[in-house]
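Work Package 3 (structural annotation) set out to generate three-dimensional models for the target panel prioritized at the project kickoff. During this period the team completed the workflow that converts sequence records into discrete structure tokens, so that structures can be stored uniformly alongside our sequence database. As a representative example, we reproduce one entry of 67 residues exactly as it appears in the project archive.
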Amino acid sequence: MHQLPDGGWLIDTPGMRELQLVDVADAIEDVFSDIAQLADACRFSDCTHTTEPDCAVLEAIDSGVLE
């Protein structure tokens, strides 16, 4: 492994033709099922859970239901 000047890493893998990153998009709802369920109750379907009114995720955090 070689650290690059901008903070990235270069990995030399002799004999390996390719490395693929795993697509975690499908697993997000499994890992964060409690948040995904709350997000369905938000007022806006494109809620970013930061400043929108009637955000179920922020309300759960404020009330202590969600850490």
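Residues 22-67 form a domain with the Ribonucleotide Reductase Protein R1; domain 1 fold (CATH 1.10.40.50).
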